[in-house]
Amino acid sequence: MDALRTDLYQLTMAAGYFHRGMQDRRATCEMFVRRLPRHRRYLLAMGIERLLGYLETLSFTEDEIRYLRDVPALRDAMTEPFVEYLRRFRFRGDVAAVREGTVVFANEPLVRISAPIIEAQIVETFLLSAMNHATMIASKAARVVRAAGGAGVIEFGTRRTHPEAAVDAARSAYAAGFVGTSNVEAGKRFGIPVMGTAAHIWTMAHATEEEAFENYVATFPSASILLIDTYDTLRGAERAARIAKDKLKGVRLDSGDLLALSRAVRPILDAAGCTSAKIVASGDLNEYKIEALVRAGAPIDLYGVGTDVVASIDSPALGGVYKLVEIEQEGRGVVPICKFSEGKATFPGPHQVYRFVDGAGVLARDVIALADEDPRGLGEGEPEALLVPRMKSGARVEPAEGLDVVRARVTRELARLPGALHVLDEAPPPPERTDEPFRPVPSARLLELVEDVRARVVGAAT
């Protein structure tokens, strides 16, 4: 199942490998981000659990195979032997990956897949789709949480993206530190707290604002958060406090000058005895606006953020790529592979990332090394190996991690970042950024291998 959630060229290449007798050749591919997006000083790796679930169940159904027989680009290749191969197809490869919620940087592999080349090839599109999207959302959400300080942040973005992407975005945002989501399906699927009140249409559907508030409180006496800015925000606050009284859990501001309004609403609620009522603010918020509100001392307890998180507006796409790093070649054994294209060069061989922290537990340096290197030769300290085995021969080597475990990891990961990596730069750096305040370094052995491969392939080409 899900085998058609891919690009056509994955299937044309798969057919080519099969018909040329290459289907059993072992290949190793890695997913990484060549350079950090603009406005990002780190990324939070996410989407790995979804990828593993996909790999566990990946197969071609009869209906999918029938469809592929009629795809013009595949028609010549859909012979009975290849069709039978597709019927029996399962992912039987090995996977190593960083843990979800791990901070990663440019050129560091997030996932390494070693499998027969058709298996390694077919999974590329889904892998990149799932991980690019989830990592993009989590990395944005972490910035919003940081900007909010001690205030909570709720994910409100379902209506601003595709329905399935919205569920994935809610999970990623919650993992990055949001306290809840408005998306009910995400709540059911992942156990995320579901939060929300009523929209302006509820108030406008009643003859008066008073009637709207009275009916809402009567329906939800233990969960009354009232939207007070439909007509006149300050009068709305007075009415909410007078009608709900001690049942008022909070009020929401969705428009206007949130700093001035929150400052005016707080004393209204307190004077009416609603001192425990929260102020929730929403309306086109992002980390920059929230940081300014927090810095100004706005008495806001919760922020609702939607569009800016689910669309990651300042960096709306993550350019993660998936590249071949090693392959078994006839008569030559296993051969390290890399690209030397300008601006798109890659490192050869399977890799490991070793993370070193200083005496205070703060991130000091990352070293991208070959997977079989002894970390004791990479410098002082006891490094952490970021990529860990997740699947062996197509089966998980450990149970799926719970979302609470991922959230706890994010908290630890962000706490050990140097302060410079938490700075919010609203003015973007140049498109080809040269200002990354933290850059992993390749090991000496890896650089030697690069030159060995260069001599082999460039020499062969000439």
From TrEMBL:
InterPro entries hit by this protein: Aldolase_TIM (IPR013785), N/Namide_PRibTrfase (IPR041525), NAPRTase_N (IPR040727), Nic_PRibTrfase-Fam (IPR007229), Nic_PRibTrfase_pncB (IPR006405), Nicotinate_pribotase-like_C (IPR036068)
Domain Nicotinate/nicotinamide phosphoribosyltransferase: 154-324
Post-translational modifications reported in the UniProt record: Transiently phosphorylated on a His residue during the reaction cycle. Phosphorylation strongly increases the affinity for substrates and increases the rate of nicotinate D-ribonucleotide production. Dephosphorylation regenerates the low-affinity form of the enzyme, leading to product release.
Its EC number(s): 6.3.4.21
GO molecular function, one term: nicotinamide phosphoribosyltransferase activity
Enzyme class, spelled out: ligase
Keywords associated with the record: Glycosyltransferase, Ligase, Phosphoprotein, Pyridine nucleotide biosynthesis, Transferase
Protein's pathway: Cofactor biosynthesis; NAD(+) biosynthesis; nicotinate D-ribonucleotide from nicotinate: step 1/1
SUPFAM superfamilies from the UniProt entry: Nicotinate/Quinolinate PRTase C-terminal domain-like, Nicotinate/Quinolinate PRTase N-terminal domain-like
Gene3D superfamilies associated with the record: Aldolase class I, nicotinate phosphoribosyltransferase
Segments forming domain Nicotinate phosphoribosyltransferase N-terminal: 4-132
One Gene Ontology CC term in the entry: cytosol
Catalytic activity: 5-phospho-alpha-D-ribose 1-diphosphate + nicotinate + ATP + H2O = nicotinate beta-D-ribonucleotide + ADP + phosphate + diphosphate
GO biological process terms, semicolon-separated: NAD+ biosynthetic process via the salvage pathway
Function: Catalyzes the first step in the biosynthesis of NAD from nicotinic acid, the ATP-dependent synthesis of beta-nicotinate D-ribonucleotide from nicotinate and 5-phospho-D-ribose 1-phosphate.
Record-stated family: Belongs to the NAPRTase family.
Protein name: Nicotinate phosphoribosyltransferase
